[in-house]
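During the second year of the project, the team shifted from modelling isolated chains to modelling whole assemblies. The rationale, set out in the original proposal, was that interfaces cannot be judged from single-chain predictions alone. As a representative example for this report, we include one of the complexes processed in the last quarter. Its constituent sequences, exactly as entered into the pipeline, are reproduced here:
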Amino acid sequence: MELLADPVLAGFIAASVRLSIPILLAALGGMFAEKSGVLNIGLEGMMLIGCFMGFITVHWSGNLWLGAGVAVLVGAIAGLGLAFYAVTLRSNQVVVGIAFNLLMLGVSAYFFRLAFGSGTAAPRITPFAPLDFGALGQIPILGPLLFQHDPLTYLSLGLVIAGWLVMQRSTIGLSIKAVGEHPEAAETLGLDPIAIRYAAVAVSGALAGLGGAFLSISATGVFLDNMTAGRGYIALAILILGRRHPFGVMVAALLFGAAEALQLRAQLLPVGVPLQFLIMLPYVLTIVVLAVSATRSGAPAALGQPYEKGGG
Amino acid sequence: MSESASEAAVGLARRWLLPRSVLSGVLCVVAAFAIGALLIAAIGRDPALAYLSLFEASLGSTNGLAETAIRTVPLAFCGIGIALAFRAGVFNVGAEGQLFIGGVAAAWVGLQLGGQPQWLVLPAMGVAAAVAGAAWSAVAGVLKLKFRADELITTIMLNYIAIYFVGYLLHGPLQDPGSPLARTARLAAEARLPMLLEGTRLHAGLLLVVIVAIVAQLFLWRSVAGFRLRAVGHNARAAENTGMNVKAALWTGFLVCGALAGLAGFSEVAGVQRRMIENLSPGFGYTAIIVALLGQTNPLGVLAAAVLFAALQIGSTTMESAAGVPSALTTVIQALVVLLLIGQNALPRLVRRRAVSGS
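Output from the structure prediction step:
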């Protein structure tokens, strides 16, 4: 039973949770968009702009919660922009998503350079600190899993539960799913597919923005160009692995957090595996997971298909 | 969905071949630059000075033009490959990784064959790069066709894996003996692309990519296989109903894209770096996605778009030092070009729809 109390294991579990949160939030956001029938390839860019705006807000105001709020707001606005293309203009959702990601990459790098110049000293903020649960944090396994985290982590877990309640237990969730499965039928029921899709993509942007902000204002306290490094795309894979269900997504995200934590820790140990192979781990895992689970994904019937009022 | 494949082809031709598409591309570029100018003015800098220094650096001298041409080569190789894949309905976002794999394969073959005649070494390197790039792309092809895994995500993951794998090779088995840097040994003279212009770094890769663009254009619009590719990409179900081999067209999309991206790696290794290095590409494979879209997925259009984006990239650092405008502005302009282009293509349909429902 010594293993259970091992500080290395405790650190690993805590890090797994910490590293899974950004992907979890983005994937949860992706779930809302996809359930409504819109493929949000722009999650990566929305994370990045949230990461940047969260950081810069905290840097100027010193208020962490204000930073989180701004990241949510900016992510939602980006979501509305993407919805304009995907829903109103009925553009190819993959192409639009890729273009949005590039735009956010450029915008965040442009304004970061403007705000801080190209000096060598990277600006820092003091990130969220873990809450102190006293003795609870020392419980083996459960302590590092549940009781050693900062408020943003608990907010994220709360959002998973809220997401589950909304999707599975409310009429709002029912409406979103109806629009994603069969927008024409949904409209005859008196729903507005266009408005629902706009709202769902805005929510997905808001959650992705918060996930991105977690990287800068909770996990690290710094901002770097292209800091999200593909996490938005990994979130899309997580969504498939988690069967587009809030709890499934949470478990899948935790798996990836663990893969990242494992490679970070293995780098410090003499395991004899080249460093690059360890860094590849989460990306390889994504591919394996997709190959295994894609065929039984249960995607909404109208996913990726633009809807035209009155039939088209 | 009663649309037949031939109708689909006519629709495609109407959509992509009319000069209007060229005009709309130019309009979007102009509009993107105008928005960029507002961004520059908003931070209190001079847009005219910024753009002048940008294009002065990339197009205003022989050396600037040569550097722009050098940049054009990998962007056009990858862009044409991506464009052909898009035409087949394959969203191959993996050119970046395919470029790295092609580059390392070219360097390895070049090092093995050092001392052999150039007419043998260079083609061998090119073939190795194309085959390696295609093989890497084929991984995503297998995942899509056998496991139905979305190529958009798998190709992006494969990019990261390729770059780290090449990093491993350059830190390990292929590392230049006696150098602490992550790179291969220098290629012998026979393994380098000939130079085209005295006093510049312009290499023969430019000729190669122009030939590839022309061949790709002919393939797409003048060959039966090209017709099939377009028909499948436009409407896979209709194409299948007319007896076309959808799988073959999808495979063409994966393999041609991988091979051309591999050639981009080859031209960078044999023409510019003269060895394989860890940072072979500053995101050519990603920028090329935008280049492919701006070129309306027409190979010759892609070539033209690649020249523009190469000029933007070459001039961006000068713009930063001369006008105080962060070089990332060019990334913003690139993204705006595409967003405007997509919006513009969608608008006529939107307006028509409004008019119909209003009557």
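The radius of gyration of chain B is 21 Å. Chain B touches chain A through 48 residues (CB under 8 Å).
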